[in-house]
From TrEMBL:
Subcellular location: Cell inner membrane
Organism of derivation: Roseibium marinum
Entry keyword set: ATP-binding, Nucleotide-binding, Sugar transport, Transport
SMART domains reported in the protein's UniProt record: AAA
Domain ABC transporter: 5-235
Pfam families, per database record: ABC_tran, OB_MalK, TOBE
Coiled-coil intervals: none
Name recorded for this polypeptide: Multiple sugar transport system ATP-binding protein
């Protein structure tokens, strides 16, 4: 796949503070890439560098094979949607959508065609005569997306566009953005700290921390085979359960932790990994089983329930077992209460094992 955006050895420093560190990234034509990470990891900074809103310290940025490292934002062929709607309050929605095109000197007929097309795609045709103050949050964000859409850009950049909206509206607009990408097939880069947005929207996710990309992969790969303990811990709610211990036994490896010995038969070690020494073993709450299934599971734990969170579709239970605190995702109809003694189990094939020192996947 020909790269729509190519970032080579990108670095950005503010004085002695290195914000982005020798970062390399290839984004395919028509790909939906999500930059995901906690606050301060550099994801919005990277997006602003691609947009040309920040001057980089080192490296190069290519869009469509063209070196745009020092080009003005208006010359890069991008459309950007910000966290704040940034609409002109004195203008109507139609005026906001057409303002940049008028400044660019486009013919009136072409401006009208672009505005009408964007309004139809985003289903905001009845709103074109309204001013932003008369719109809901979701309508304002659609108008802001429309303003980027009329530019007819090859690349769209989204900087946490849904973070100001309530949960239901976020879910609704998330669907609309995904459908928009399916209709347009433009390259899109989307910044968020919300893992649900990342998992549901992305073709690939770049997990960032400290100005670097820790893992770049599909949502399925990141969820099931996280590259290191940080990624494993960051993705998933509740977070992955971790056991602190060590691996012994070579080919017939066992994971030893406080009060337990887990056989690692079926675990797919990385090629060349050392299968001995201090390690973490992680298992997701939804990869654990209970009841009759637990009794036949290769690895079994007995514990006492100390907290229950009924969520309707499923039930989360936190239990203590031999000095470990675990989250388990149960069926929504499961009858479990504080103080219950239950057995849970899992298969090592669903687990993740990380080296204790490097925290990289084994």
């Amino acid at each position: 796949m020909e790269a729509s955006i190519s970032i080579k050895n990108l670095s950005l420093s503010f004085g002695a503070l290195d914000v982005l560190k020798d970062l390399n990234l290839e984004i395919g034509q028509g790909e939906f890439l999500v930059l995901l990470g906690s606050s301060g990891c550099g994801k919005s900074t990277l997006l602003n560098c691609i947009a040309g809103l920040l001057d980089i310290t080192g490296g190069q940025i290519f869009i469509g094979g063209r070196n745009v490292t020092w080009e003005e934002p208006s010359k890069r062929g991008i459309g950007m949607v910000f966290q704040s709607y940034a609409l002109y309050p004195q203008m109507t929605v139609g005026g906001n959508l057409s303002f940049g095109l008028k400044n660019a000197g486009l013919p009136k007929a072409e401006i009208k065609e672009r505005v009408d097309r964007a309004a139809k795609v985003l289903q905001i045709e009845p709103l074109l005569a309204r001013k932003p103050a008369a719109l809901s949050g979701g309508q304002r964000q659609r108008a802001a997306i429309g303003r980027a859409l009329v530019r007819d850009a090859d690349v769209f950049l989204f900087d946490e566009p849904l973070s100001n909206l309530d949960a239901k509206l976020r879910a609704d607009l998330r669907v609309e953005i995904k459908q928009l990408h399916q209709k347009l097939s433009n390259t899109m880069i989307y910044v968020t700290h919300d893992q649900i947005e990342a998992m549901t929207l992305a073709d690939r996710i770049a997990i960032m921390r400290g100005g670097q990309i820790l893992q770049l992969a599909t949502p399925h790969e990141i969820y099931n085979r996280p590259a290191n303990k940080y990624v494993a811990d960051f993705i998933g709610s509740p977070t992955m359960n971790f056991f602190d211990g060590k691996i012994e036994g070579g080919d017939g490896a066992q994971f030893l932790t406080e009060g337990h010995s887990f056989p690692l038969h079926g675990y797919n070690f990385q090629s060349g990994s050392a299968v001995s020494g201090p390690a973490w073993l992680g298992i997701r709450p939804e990869h654990m089983v209970s009841g009759a299934e637990a009794e036949t599971a290769p690895i079994r734990l007995h514990g006492e329930v100390e907290l229950v969170e009924p969520l309707g579709s499923d039930t989360l239970a936190r239990l203590t077992s031999g000095g470990h605190t675990l989250w388990v995702r149960l069926d929504g109809q499961a009858e479990v209460a504080n103080g219950d003694q239950i057995t849970v189990g899992f298969d090592a094939a669903r687990a993740n094992v990380f080296d204790k020192n490097s925290e990289n996947r084994l």
